[in-house]
Specification:
heterodimer; A: 186 residues; three-stranded antiparallel sheet; B: 196 residues
């Protein structure tokens, strides 16, 4: 057998990676081959050189730098997660408050009713026949009707509209009930 | 309370029970416990990454990523039973990923940075020469040969453990190791013959 064929086994032998049977075969060959003995010592020297160099690892400062980075990263993630939870909690509470407002299901307080009879408008337009397509105009027309109700009445208008003003607890909310000339609410 | 429990068992961290306790505490969110785990394995991870990549800066990036992965996977690690095996496997994989992202990640300039400041100049030079030989010889190897050699000859894992870490068969690992040793032998002889 050529000595080159022994190289792989010698390399494994140098690192004690052979099974006992192969190991014995290599040792028999080494006993009669000076070239392979030299080759083996070169292999061992190479491994020893690498191991010695490997002993000089990174300094404590290099290790501490990595450790600090890892811990800082984890603390940052933890803070971010805490913020996310806080925001989510506040949002959930707000949504809950909006959905279940405390005063919403309670019976509304009895409004104070004040009845007044404003002067009749100068001219009341008759509401146009309903045209679903032109709904916006209809609303505008109705609004136009209301405004003149507060104007001074014509002298000979027989049926003045009755306006009922409901004053609620909320100062911004005032409800008007307006009845037409024949007593029908408009 | 968790911290107190951790302190009570910190003295026994080298034992299996202590380590499991520290992992439990870290899993529960105790950063002090996790720092203890880092301290125990940081040298192993950083050195392995440095040997696989050849550049300290990249090795530090890899170490950071490995420990963040560890934090996220503490449950799996505990179940796997071998923390160091898990760390080696993840380190090799993260190095492989980094190498794909940064193909030019091979450098020797960090050899000088690692020299011990206490050594006298002659010793420092000899140590620097050895480190340079180590770095350059590892560069000669294929990625798989390098990983096998680093884990077997430098980190001292058994062939079976190396095979498990690399996800290969023992026969494959043995073949990679023997080729790597022959290449290193040739390089080291040439390197020091040139310098004598």
């Amino acid at each position: 057998m050529n000595c080159r064929d022994w190289e792989e086994r010698l390399a494994l032998y140098a690192g004690d990676d052979l099974a006992p049977a192969e190991r014995a075969a290599v040792e028999r060959h080494l006993g009669e081959c000076a070239g392979c003995q030299v080759f083996l010592s070169g292999l061992k020297a190479g491994i020893d050189t690498l191991r010695e160099a490997h002993e000089d690892g990174p300094s404590e400062a290099h290790l501490a730098a990595v450790r600090a980075r890892v811990l800082a990263d984890l603390r940052h993630r933890r803070r971010s997660r805490a913020w996310a939870w806080a925001v989510a909690t506040v949002a959930a509470v707000l949504l809950l408050l909006v959905a279940v407002r405390p005063g919403r299901k309670e019976a509304p307080p009895v409004p104070v009713v004040a009845v007044s009879r404003p002067p009749a408008p100068v001219e009341i337009e008759r509401p146009r026949p309903r045209q679903p397509v032109r709904r916006v105009r209809h609303v505008v027309a109705r609004n136009r009707v209301r405004t003149p109700l507060l104007a001074s009445p014509p002298p000979n208008e027989p049926a003045e509209p009755l306006v009922v003003k409901l004053i609620t607890d909320d100062p911004d909310v005032v409800i008007y009930l307006i009845s037409g000339g024949k007593g029908e609410p408009k | 309370m968790r911290t107190l429990a951790f302190l009570a068992m910190a003295g026994a961290i080298n034992g299996q029970d202590g380590r499991v306790g520290v992992i439990e505490a870290a899993k529960a969110g105790d950063l002090a416990a996790f720092e203890q785990l880092i301290r125990q394995y940081e040298r192993m991870v950083l050195v392995t990454a440095l040997r696989l990549l050849g550049r300290l800066e990249d090795a530090q990036d890899v170490s950071q990523e490995v420990f963040l992965k560890l934090y996220r996977n503490l449950g799996k690690v505990e179940a796997s039973g071998s923390l160091s095996g898990w760390l080696y496997r993840v380190t090799v994989n993260v190095c492989h990923d980094l190498r794909r992202r940064r193909p030019d990640t091979v450098a020797v300039e960090d050899a000088g940075e690692l020299a011990s400041p206490d050594a006298d100049p002659q010793q420092r030079t000899a140590a620097a020469e050895r480190r340079r030989a180590l770095e350059l010889s590892l560069r000669l190897l294929s990625e798989k040969e390098r990983a096998a050699l680093v884990l077997r000859d430098l980190e001292g894992l058994s062939t079976e453990e190396v095979a498990r870490v690399l996800g290969s068969s023992e026969a494959t690992v043995r073949s990679q190791i023997s080729k790597a040793r022959v290449k290193v032998k040739g390089f080291v002889e040439r390197y020091f013959r040139r310098r004598v």
